[in-house]
Amino acid sequence: MTATSVTHSPKVVFARGAIANIKNEIEVLNKKRVLLISDESASVIASKIASELGSLIIQSIDHVVMHVPDEFSAPIVASAQKNEIDLVISIGGGSATGLGKIVALDAQIDLMAVPTTYAGSEMTTIWGRTRNNQKVTGRDMAVLPKTTIYDPELTYSFPLSISANSGMNAIAHAVEALYAPDVTSQVHDAALEGIQVFSKGLRLLYADINNLDARDELLRGSMLCGFSLSNATMGIHHKICHTLGGMFDLAHAPMHSAVLPWAVQYNQNFAGSQLNEVAVVLNAPRADIGLWDLAKEVGAQTSLKNIGYPLEKSEEVADVISRATFANPRPFEKQAVMDLLERAYTGIRPNDEA
Question: Is the pLDDT of residue 352 over 70?
């Protein structure tokens, strides 16, 4: 087992079977009253942890809602405050971590994260919530987990569809970190390695769903991409996905997978050197083509139409994005963003578009 700490990151514990030491990690933090948050996919491991922790568990939440709407999180925050919770533990995918972060932020309670997908949020100071059908995001050290436990064994039973889409979501963090205005050499290297790990690992997993070494590597890749996300400013890809998630409640990871190649194409002529590095890692003529081909090959989503995006709302989406402040290599262009959304909707391969 290894434990590491780097700038703008939590203490990381990464090992097969690491979850068995969660009680020790709680003791290190000197916490006594725990709120346990889990999503449906993590119900079995959450039940085991609750049994092991016994009286330390004061409050439990066993379901979550995508994009963390305020009307869902507010009663949980109020209950946590009433129960004098001093540690939130989130177990599951990005929505579980996201809810844990909002509780940590609003109630000023420390957070421990146990991710079971490749969302990456468990490595970051970034929070997100939905208010009045608008996704709102920010950064605050209060939501950076004190400890993140990566146990690859928790990912071994996940179907390929979840792994593939979650992997493309992770790659999106790394890609946008590469052309961020504040990217450092450390983040640059982590981002490229993360993309390489997912490009190889997802293909290995597609070839053999029982390849445990590939699953171990994919979780390490998630850590690298999450580190990149936390330490660089995200661009138009994330702004589009946050907007779509808040307005239409689209499935988070498949949405990222479908949008990413087109967001990259949008920026191609404004971040050519960085995206050429991505193309090299993917062994593709262009980054957008390589990303689309990878998604298609491993069974990740390539079409917003398939997850319910209403194409007729594209101008409204573009108007919402136009009012936002975000860093991106290419300035906002309304018609180009609408075209991006249309192409992501159709699912056509970038090299084949009209």
Answer: no
Q: Are 243 and 20 in contact (CB under 8 A)?
A: no
Cα gap 274→245, rounded to integer Å: 27
Q: Residue ranges of the alpha helices (H) in 211-351?
A: 212-230, 236-248, 252-267, 272-282, 287-298, 314-322, 334-346
Question: Is the pLDDT reported for residue 2 higher than 50?
Answer: no
Tell me the pLDDT tens digit for each residue of 196-229: 999 999 999 999 999 999 999 999 999 999 999 9
* φ, ψ at 43 (rounded to 5°): -65, -35
Could you please report the per-residue DSSP string of 122-144? GG-SEEEEEETTEEEEEE-GGGS
Whether the CB-CB separation of 74 and 103 falls below 8 Å is answered with no
The structural domains of the chain, ordered by start, are 2-155 (3.40.50.1970), 160-352 (1.20.1090.10)
- In this prediction, residues 121-145 reach a mean pLDDT of 93
CA distance 256 to 236: 12
The 8-class DSSP code of residue 156 comes to T
Residue 108's φ and ψ, nearest 5 degrees, are 55, 55
Six-digit token string for 338: 């609408």
Is the predicted pLDDT of residue 255 greater than 80, yes or no?
Answer: yes
Dig out the tokens for 115 from the structure. 């991710």
Give DSSP secondary structure letters for 176-225. Answer: HHHT-TT--HHHHHHHHHHHHHHHHHHHHHHH-TT-HHHHHHHHHHHHHH
> What backbone phi and psi angles, to 5 degrees, belong to 3?
-130, 125
Strand order in the sheet with 2-4: 2-4, 11-14, 147-150, 110-115, 87-92, 34-38, 57-61
**Strand pairing report for 126-131 and 134-139:** antiparallel
Task: Tell me the per-residue pLDDT of 299-338, one tens digit each, with 9 for 90 and over.
Answer: 999 999 999 999 999 999 999 999 988 999 999 999 999 9
- What is the rounded average pLDDT for all residues in the chain? 95
Task: Report how many helices (DSSP H) and strands (DSSP E) the chain contains, helices first.
Answer: 13, 9
